């Protein structure tokens, strides 16, 4: 095992993990266990620092995964400079949230399960799929299951995923798995953001909001701006918004915030959910 320490000012694991961009993590021993693909790490606080503990071979992976090479101070400054007090408040409340660099394939299936769903249930369904089809591994004396690759997911049909409780999303999981078993989601990284969005929209069950979630959380396209229930509420209350359709709202925010949009989206999502819901898990 290897350990690395990071400044806690712009790295808050609790808010980063709970803000709906990742679903495979759990609180453990005063810290957090985080899983990505076949890998695992542990985060915890020590002496005012955030400690990342993982296998030595995974250190570079998780450094990139948590976006630890990026300075988030200019991002917060951009949010505060927009002239909208609520955005500055949201950035202050969400200080420490980082946009993760996740495995895009895992993100595709995770957000297919997110539709009309709430975070605890999304996590439960992903856990069932991993337990059924993933490989069992050990980390720090505890066992966990890897996230199955598309080739493995494609070996099962819609009925299998329906039996796990995926409901109408089962056909989307099975259909997307067949496509991604033939194609490589990593290859999509070479596409421009409009091309990426177009490609994602061709996957079964992927609409505009899910495509934006995958673009932001799976490919770190920070100009993507997913609009969900919480962001729409913030738009109507703090921006005096009158646009009816979420695709139009997303375009409005993308134009307003540009390359910082995805970061500010997370601040607004976190701020609005905490303000209205006191941190309780709810619809993603």
TrEMBL record:
<dbReference type="Pfam" id="PF00730">
    <property type="entry name" value="HhH-GPD"/>
</dbReference>
<dbReference type="InterPro" id="IPR052054">
    <property type="entry name" value="Oxidative_DNA_repair_enzyme"/>
</dbReference>
<dbReference type="InterPro" id="IPR023170">
    <property type="entry name" value="HhH_base_excis_C"/>
</dbReference>
<keyword id="KW-0456">Lyase</keyword>
<dbReference type="GO" id="GO:0006284">
    <property type="term" value="P:base-excision repair"/>
</dbReference>
<keyword id="KW-0326">Glycosidase</keyword>
<dbReference type="Pfam" id="PF07934">
    <property type="entry name" value="OGG_N"/>
</dbReference>
<keyword id="KW-0234">DNA repair</keyword>
<dbReference type="GO" id="GO:0003684">
    <property type="term" value="F:damaged DNA binding"/>
</dbReference>
<keyword id="KW-0378">Hydrolase</keyword>
<dbReference type="InterPro" id="IPR012904">
    <property type="entry name" value="OGG_N"/>
</dbReference>
<dbReference type="GO" id="GO:0006289">
    <property type="term" value="P:nucleotide-excision repair"/>
</dbReference>
<dbReference type="InterPro" id="IPR011257">
    <property type="entry name" value="DNA_glycosylase"/>
</dbReference>
<keyword id="KW-0511">Multifunctional enzyme</keyword>
<comment type="similarity">
    <text>Belongs to the type-1 OGG1 family.</text>
</comment>
<protein>
    <recommendedName>
        <fullName>DNA-(apurinic or apyrimidinic site) lyase</fullName>
        <ecNumber>4.2.99.18</ecNumber>
    </recommendedName>
</protein>
<dbReference type="GO" id="GO:0140078">
    <property type="term" value="F:class I DNA-(apurinic or apyrimidinic site) endonuclease activity"/>
</dbReference>
<dbReference type="GO" id="GO:0008534">
    <property type="term" value="F:oxidized purine nucleobase lesion DNA N-glycosylase activity"/>
</dbReference>
<keyword id="KW-0227">DNA damage</keyword>
<feature type="domain" description="HhH-GPD">
    <location>
        <begin position="113"/>
        <end position="273"/>
    </location>
</feature>
<dbReference type="InterPro" id="IPR003265">
    <property type="entry name" value="HhH-GPD_domain"/>
</dbReference>
């Amino acid at each position: 095992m290897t350990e690395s320490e990071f400044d806690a000012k712009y790295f808050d694991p609790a808010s980063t993990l709970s803000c709906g961009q990742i679903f495979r993590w759990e609180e453990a021993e005063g810290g957090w266990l985080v899983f990505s693909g076949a890998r695992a790490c542990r985060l915890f606080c020590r002496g005012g620092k955030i400690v990342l503990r993982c296998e030595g071979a995974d250190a570079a992976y998780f450094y990139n995964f948590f976006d630890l090479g990026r300075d988030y101070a200019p991002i917060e400054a951009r949010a505060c400079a927009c002239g909208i007090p609520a955005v500055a408040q949201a950035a202050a409340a969400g200080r420490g949230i980082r946009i993760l660099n996740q495995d895009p394939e895992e993100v595709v299936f995770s957000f297919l399960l997110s539709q009309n769903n709430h975070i605890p249930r999304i996590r439960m369904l992903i856990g069932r799929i991993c337990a059924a089809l993933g490989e069992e591994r050990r980390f720090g004396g505890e066992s966990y299951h890897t996230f199955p690759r598309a080739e493995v997911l494609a070996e099962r049909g819609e009925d299998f995923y329906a039996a796990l409780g995926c409901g109408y999303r089962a056909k989307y999981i099975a259909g997307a798995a067949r496509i991604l078993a033939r194609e490589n989601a990593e290859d999509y990284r070479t596409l421009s953001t409009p091309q990426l969005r177009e490609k994602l929209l061709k996957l079964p069950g992927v609409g505009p909001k899910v495509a934006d979630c995958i673009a932001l959380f799976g490919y770190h396209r920070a100009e993507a701006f997913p609009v969900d229930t919480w962001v729409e509420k913030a738009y109507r209350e703090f921006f005096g918004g009158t646009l009816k359709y979420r695709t139009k709202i997303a375009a409005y925010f993308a134009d307003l915030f540009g390359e910082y949009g995805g970061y500010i989206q997370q601040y607004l999502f976190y701020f609005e959910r905490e303000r209205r819901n006191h941190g309780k898990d709810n619809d993603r």
